[in-house]
């Protein structure tokens, strides 16, 4: 499975910030060919050209400008948390190693990390981002203390201890300017006539949307842009006439400020839960962290689960 990773976005950010692939390769201490491959992989996953080369260096395409703006926002939010952590911790502090799969609400997650270190200066936090496979393997190898992801079921959950933070629902969303925004009861044919931005075909939300068309015997969805990075897909949906589907917590702020609207098409689904995953009983660090996550998610995103 290939992913649009946080590392890929930050590599693209460095190329733009430094003005050329050559300068970015030197700054990141990697080969120019390696950096070029990373950029090409990112463009392939996003479904569009991000930069063009000129004698003066690189120039952003219109699509690249959109992606860069939101890559910059992601870098700023993660950087804010990391800077605060470094400022308020010392080498003697207790270390909490957190693995993150980007399905949790980014702002609320970053604020939870900041709140943890602010309230407990005796704690030190190390963040690691990656795919579900990478994070769960690191947890099994004792390289992480806790992972933020969907809660697991069946054989996948064997030997793991999980705390549910929220029960989640998937829905279809679009810009308020989309033709279906005011439709009180859109049909599958209406959905088929629209273009979409969704994740890869092996991602659960994409499979859910594909099942709608399969059950109706209608070809679809017509995916114009395939991107797995939720903040980018959310930004594309806001600034286009594409439909997309998200867990509702990922678009709560955009719904509140009117940048996105929910399309009134009911999806048959089993609710998924987002939460934390660990091995063995809580430590003081993990228990405190989970408690703060629940408080911040409830306050900022408006959902939570007691217990």
TrEMBL record:
Annotated HTH lysR-type domain residues: 4-61
A single MF term (Gene Ontology): transcription cis-regulatory region binding
Similarity comment: family membership: Belongs to the LysR transcriptional regulatory family.
Domain of life: Bacteria
Family annotation (InterPro entries): LysR_HTH_N, LysR_subst-bd, WH-like_DNA-bd_sf, WH_DNA-bd_sf
Coiled coil stretches, renumbered: none
Alphabetic keyword roster: DNA-binding, Plasmid, Transcription, Transcription regulation
SUPFAM superfamilies associated with the record: Periplasmic binding protein-like II (SSF53850), Winged helix' DNA-binding domain (SSF46785)
The name this protein goes by in its record: LysR family transcriptional regulator
Keyword Transcription regulation among UniProt keywords: yes
């Amino acid at each position: 499975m290939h992913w649009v990773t946080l590392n890929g976005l930050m590599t693209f950010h460095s190329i733009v910030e430094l003005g050329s692939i050559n300068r970015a390769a030197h700054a990141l201490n990697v080969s120019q060919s390696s950096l070029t491959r990373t950029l090409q992989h990112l463009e392939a996953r996003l479904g569009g050209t991000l930069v063009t080369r000129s004698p003066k260096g690189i120039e952003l395409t219109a699509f690249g400008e959109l992606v860069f703006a939101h890559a910059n926002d992601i870098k700023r939010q993660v950087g804010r948390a990391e800077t605060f952590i470094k400022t308020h911790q010392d080498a003697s502090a207790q270390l909490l190693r957190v693995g993150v799969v980007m399905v949790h609400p980014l702002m609320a997650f970053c604020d939870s990390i900041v709140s943890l270190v602010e309230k407990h200066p005796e704690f030190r936090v190390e963040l690691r981002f990656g795919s579900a496979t990478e994070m769960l393997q690191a947890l099994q190898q004792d390289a992480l203390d806790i992972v933020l992801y969907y809660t697991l079921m069946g054989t996948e959950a064997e030997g793991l201890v999980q705390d549910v933070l929220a029960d989640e629902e998937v829905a279809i969303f679009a810009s308020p300017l989309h033709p279906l925004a005011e439709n009180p009861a859109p049909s599958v044919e209406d959905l088929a006539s629209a273009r979409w931005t969704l994740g890869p075909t092996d991602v659960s939300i994409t499979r859910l949307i594909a099942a709608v068309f399969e059950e109706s015997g209608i070809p679809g969805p017509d995916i114009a842009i395939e991107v797995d990075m939720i903040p980018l897909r959310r930004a594309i949906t806001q600034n286009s006439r594409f439909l997309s589907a998200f867990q509702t917590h990922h678009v709560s702020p955009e719904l509140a400020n009117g940048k996105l609207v929910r399309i009134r098409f009911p999806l048959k689904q089993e609710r998924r839960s987002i939460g934390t995953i660990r091995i063995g009983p809580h430590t003081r660090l993990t228990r405190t962290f989970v408690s703060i996550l629940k408080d911040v998610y409830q306050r900022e995103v408006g959902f939570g689960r007691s217990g």
